[in-house]
Amino acid sequence: MLSAADNVRLTQTGPGTPMGRTFRKYWMPALLSRELPNPDCPPVRLKLLGEDFVAFRDTLGKVGIVEPRCPHRGANLFFGRNEACGLRCIYHGWKFDRHGNCVDIPNATPEVAARLMPRASIEALTVEECGDIVWAHFGDSPPPLPDFEYLSVPPEQRFVSKKLQQCNWAQAVEGGLDTAHFSYLHAGIYKGEKASLLDAGKRPTAKGENEPPNQARLRWLIEDGAPRFTVLDHDAGLLLCAARTADFEQTYWRMTQYLLPNHSLTPGNFPEDTSLMNTWVPYDDESCWIFCYAWHPDREISDLARERYLKGNGLFAEVDDKFIPVRRRENDYLVDRDMQQSVNYTGIGNISEQDQAVADSQGVIADRTQELLVQTDLGITRFRATILNACEAVECGNQPKGASNPAAYRVRSGDYVSQPTESLADVVTERFGDRCGQNIVYP
Ligand code: FES
Ligand SMILES: [Fe+2]
Questions:
Q1: Angle 379-384-386 from CA coordinates, rounded to 5°
Q2: Which of 67, 91, 121 to mutate to test the pocket of ligand 1 (most atoms within 8 A of CB)?
């Protein structure tokens, strides 16, 4: 539970707000590289943390993200002509490069133009393109990008996309960190009872020696709906460890990374599996873009997997050509009440859309003053405390945690099955080679 004041502080990221100032200390994914496919291609409208921008790829292939208002008389540069390393306003031809410098004022004498030009520059974000993503920073000389593993692998070994979430960023992040919900929200149904996701609408597969390991894990998720959480602090965020009862007195651990300010590496993977990560980027305070990444440190993402992700699978939603989910607030996520009785717990297809629906259903901005929290919400309360502390650091004139420490983002998340005698410290060290899943040496 939060006070009303802290809820406002947590959720508002516009210019001048405490959380807005905090977010502006970190690199943000701004758009997918493929949204600007070629040099001099059409510019793209962009909203980031409540501020409007226009993004364009110039003749040299470099991306600029600039304020959309032309300083002459305010025409919108989204309609600008992308030509010869700059965006030219269509009204009277003033031209701006990707750094926001005004480079041509054709409707004035050369003397007047030369005098006006220095005053006519527009705001431009610092931009880096990496990992098929265009990253933006509001500072002039930011530190290097966070050292995420998916940025370190060759393009064949990763897949990235994005989807719109129609609620405030913070409750959407909380959905990613609240891994207890898998036992309900993502459950299947068989004969009116909760069943493993794989058994949705079908007769559950028999337990026992021939049960494939991935089926057993999904069964444990359903059998134990009250995982015990332990949260470990590290210098880019938190490692959230959820313990469920498995077979033969073993424990099934699902370990999630929260990385400041708005990233999470999902649990649900063993070392042989594909890794998954999300970044929740506020569009404004009432919606956010969720950037989704899948990668494997040493093998390619197959064409089949890419095709599945494009159609909506796991944390990738089925989206239209503007990355708007097909199942969304306006159509009640195409909930199917018959399916809810006989196939899955929600009646909503696909994990991503189930997460999306339930986060939106908490309200456009969730009211955290009226909650009744339990032990499985420990990760949520620690997330709030961590980001509000970062906010306080910024208020005091300091750098927030992680913002100038790219190496702290060399982390992994994942699953593990431990024996009854193993401590959490041993589990984490055994799984990741580090006490918090950091300091990962990339192949
Ligand atoms: S308003 Fe842009 S050039 Fe006049
Ligand atoms: Fe989920």
A1: 90
A2: 91
Distance 226 CA to ligand 2 centre (A): 15
| Choice from 94, 104, 117 to test ligand 1 binding pocket (greatest atom count within 8 A of CB) | 94
Q: Taking the CB of residue 16, how many other CB atoms lie within 10 A of it?
A: 8
Return the domain boundaries, the chain. 27-137, 149-432
> Long-range contacts for 58-62 (Cβ within 8 Å, ≥24 apart)?
58/82, 58/85, 58/86, 58/97, 58/98, 59/83, 59/84, 59/85, 60/85, 62/98, 62/127
Which protein residue's CA is at the shortest distance from atom 1 of ligand 1? 73
Q: 58 CA distance to ligand 1 centroid (A)?
A: 20
On the question of pLDDT at 200 being above 80, the answer is no
The binding-site residues of ligand 1, defined as CB within 6 angstroms of any ligand atom, are 70, 72-73, 75, 89, 91-94
At 168, list the tokens. Answer: 């405030």
Phi/psi region, residue 347 (left: phi>0; alpha: psi -120 to 50; beta: rest), is left
**pLDDT digit string, tens, across residues 363-414:** 999 999 999 999 999 999 999 999 999 999 999 999 999 999 999 999 999 9
Is the predicted pLDDT of residue 84 greater than 70, yes or no? yes
94 DSSP assignment = -
Residue 201 binned pLDDT confidence (cut-offs 50, 70, 90): low
Structure confidence by residue, pLDDT tens digits, 14-58: 999 999 999 999 999 999 999 999 999 999 999 999 999 999 999
CATH hierarchy code of domain 27-137: 2.102.10.10
Q: pLDDT per residue over 236-283, tens digit each?
A: 999 999 999 999 999 999 999 999 999 999 998 998 999 999 999 999
Cα angle 104, 110, 111; round to 5: 120
- For residue 155, the one-letter residue type is P
Task: Name the pTM for this structure.
Answer: 0.96
CA of 108 to the centre of ligand 1 (A): 12
